[in-house]
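A quick aside before the break. I want you to see a complete sequence-to-structure record at least once, exactly as it would be stored in a machine-readable document. Don't worry about memorizing anything.
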Amino acid sequence: MKLFITILLLSLVMVAGCTPAPEPAMENPPEPQEPTIDEALGAYGQGEWITDYQEALRYAQELGRPILMNFTGSDWCSWCIKLRNEVFSRQEFTDYAKDNLVLLTIDFPRVNNQSQAERAQNNELQERLGITGYPTIVLVNSEGVEINRTGYRPGGASSYVDHLKQLLVPKAK
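That is the input. The structure line, written in tokens, reads:
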């Protein structure tokens, strides 16, 4: 019995001795820093849809590209879903967008959750740009000034890319 108690106590001491010591507290921990634009662009993965308007402006300014703002009801609007399936998910569009656009989704879902901040941002943009239906595609320059707008168009991704190129050509004065 004494041998059993001795082994038990030695086991407890060994286990307790193996727990890591707490890290000493740093007196002056480093301040978290904002990522550089190169780090942010790397995280963006050009050609991907983002949801933050200020971030989209930052990317557009850095890359010298317009922003394609997709005002959508992603989980209920049949024309929005059709545009996504026939155009935005196709290789012809993604190849063009990756090299020429910053893609921004401004969503008004009925079922899918979104943060309070995103909902507020989307409502503000909808009101400011006078969006009354979905899908509405608004092309803005890197300063957020509207260039042109469109919506769903039949014909598939190649036709839509050609349409976008025409909308982005500066108008003669």
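Two observations worth writing down. Residues 72 and 107 are 5 Å apart (CA to CA). The chain has one domain: 38-167. We'll return to this after the break.
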